[in-house]
Amino acid sequence: MPRLKYASVLRFLVILGLFCLSVQIMLSASNGIIDRDGEELMNSNDTSEQVLALVPPELHKYLTVHSKNATANATERASPKNVSDIRRAIQRHNDAQIIYNEDIFGPVQNDTIIIAIQVHTRLTYLRHLIVSLAQARDIDRTLLVFSHDYYDEEINALVRSIDFTKVMQIFYPYSIQTHPYEFPGVDPNDCPRDARLEQAKKLKCNNALHPDLHGHYREAKYTQTKHHWWWKANRIFNQLQCTAGHTGMVVFLEEDHYVADDFIHMLHLLRATADKSCPQCEILCLGTYLKTYQYHTTADKVEITPWHSSMHNMGMVFNRTVWNNIMQLQEQFCAYDDYNWDYSLLHLSQNRPGREKFRVILCKGPRVFHIGECGIHHKKSNCNASTVISKVQKLLQNAKSHMFPSRVTATITAGGAKHNKKLTKGNGGWGDIRDQELCTNMTKVGRQMRRYINYA
Ligand SMILES: *[C@@H]1O[C@H](CO)[C@@H](O)[C@H](O)[C@H]1NC(C)=O
Ligand SMILES: *[C@@H]1O[C@H](CO)[C@@H](O)[C@H](O)[C@H]1NC(C)=O
Ligand SMILES: *[C@@H]1O[C@H](CO)[C@@H](O)[C@H](O)[C@H]1NC(C)=O
Ligand SMILES: *[C@@H]1O[C@H](CO)[C@@H](O)[C@H](O)[C@H]1NC(C)=O
Ligand SMILES: *[C@@H]1O[C@H](CO)[C@@H](O)[C@H](O)[C@H]1NC(C)=O
Ligand SMILES: *[C@@H]1O[C@H](CO)[C@@H](O)[C@H](O)[C@H]1NC(C)=O
Ligand SMILES: *[C@@H]1O[C@H](CO)[C@@H](O)[C@H](O)[C@H]1NC(C)=O
Ligand SMILES: *[C@@H]1O[C@H](CO)[C@@H](O)[C@H](O)[C@H]1NC(C)=O
């Protein structure tokens, strides 16, 4: 299922030649879909001196925290728990709903900004995201919710070492890791991806009658990200005890994002601008994919435009009112044959009876970056996290005097053809009725009080 990419190194080189005076940099512009093949723990020790030099010394610890046994014996660390152990641990954590550091930073309020971070296995990137969050002004008034689809002691140790704000961990309970031989993982009796319908019927495999719109059968690893995104949103808005009266903003980040230190400041400006000039803007967005960055002209600019999945999926923000509207149309999300959460949301946006599609208000100078993708001209093998991270660090350092604008100017645009194009069909990968049903089932779970149970 190939997706469009926007980056072009060649174009960058030409532009660089022309505008070498302004702050410019090419990051990997992409559609923002995280690497869905990455089952490996992206965990190499490749934080370069260059990167460390731009991280305040007191935050170096987040680049080096290991679980107690990590250095002792790698073989043991790889499989510290079996599947039933992990399931039990996950249930215990989800039941307890522990909020770390609540004693220091005070309880979650109805208007506390919640920052939801979807985490898979890319530990190196997560370390840098945490370093960036640590440096954001007013971060101590937020709640960070780390949502995991892979249980790993080292990731857990890192998250629990955070001491600069309130932290919560939630664990997606239907992961491939905890269902290795059954749905939502891969059941040995599931149809092979490329089986033909007739062939599949003969095989009598589980999902023979439900290929996707391209005629392919489900691939567990491609469905997990959409399931996880949906579960996390349901968990945060509808199920946690601490959000029962929450009406504030929820920011959606991923493990390989990186934030600017004024992102919370910008969030308040976006909110205030929306309240004044665009009450129908349901989505706020902190990031956008650019080939070049010119903060001297864009740091204080915001844009109001139709929301589009692949352009406005990074650092998306909305509140419970908007979530309730999404929930009413959950079928548009769950039954749509597309394994991308963002395209599913676009489909929902375009099919709201009696309502316009979503409008977004976004920062023209991005405050969230995607550091986890190396661009189209790099093979995974020579993708160097340090290189991308140090580029972002320097970009932000050069833009320093333009950040924390005291006010912003909004422009309203109709969006290009791409923004407004009506989706005709999905990208596929979501034809299996079990996926559609699991997705719907997630919306039926109600609020759960904290429970401490001893699973001895
Ligand atoms: C990782 O980096 C740290 C700090 O530079 C160093 O002390 C350590 O030996 C490195 N570990 C490996 C396995 O390379
Ligand atoms: C990544 O790049 C940095 C700086 O450019 C370099 O020091 C480091 O060795 C590189 N790491 C890998 C794995 O190529
Ligand atoms: C560390 O490893 C030892 C065995 O090498 C094991 O007994 C112990 O439980 C492990 N500790 C943690 C915290 O995983
Ligand atoms: C790691 O643990 C395994 C299993 O306990 C053991 O066979 C191996 O020798 C250990 N390796 C090291 C480097 O301690
Ligand atoms: C998993 O490991 C625990 C010990 O850590 C053991 O008691 C249990 O029987 C194991 N379960 C399975 C299904 O192997
Ligand atoms: C939060 O909202 C709930 C439900 O609307 C309300 O009962 C509660 O008093 C509010 N809490 C605060 C501190 O305002
Ligand atoms: C929630 O978002 C909607 C749409 O952007 C906005 O109209 C409303 O004021 C927000 N609610 C709160 C409590 O901020
Ligand atoms: C959805 O929930 C129903 C009712 O609890 C259950 O029978 C069904 O197995 C669930 N489906 C999936 C895919 O989880």
The CATH architecture category equals: Alpha-Beta Complex
CATH class: Alpha Beta
Number of helices: 18
CATH-level-4 superfamily name: Spore Coat Polysaccharide Biosynthesis Protein SpsA, Chain A
* Low-confidence parts: 1-10, 12-43
What is the fold named in CATH at topology level?
Spore Coat Polysaccharide Biosynthesis Protein SpsA, Chain A
- What small-molecule ligands were found? 2-acetamido-2-deoxy-beta-D-glucopyranose
State the order of secondary-structure elements, H for helix, E for strand. HHHHHEHEHEHEHHEEHEHEEHHHEEHEHH
Radius of gyration: 22 Å
Main sheet record: 10 strands, mixed
Short characterization:
The chain has 456 residues and is an alpha/beta fold. It has 18 helices and twelve strands.
In words, what does this structure look like?
Helix content is 35%, strand content 12%. With 456 residues, it is α/β, with parallel strands linked by helices. The chain has one domain (38-66, 84-444): Spore Coat Polysaccharide Biosynthesis Protein SpsA, Chain A, CATH 3.90.550. The longest helix is centred in the middle third of the chain and has 20 residues, at 220-239. One 2-acetamido-2-deoxy-beta-D-glucopyranose (NAG) is lined by residues 434, 437-438, 441.
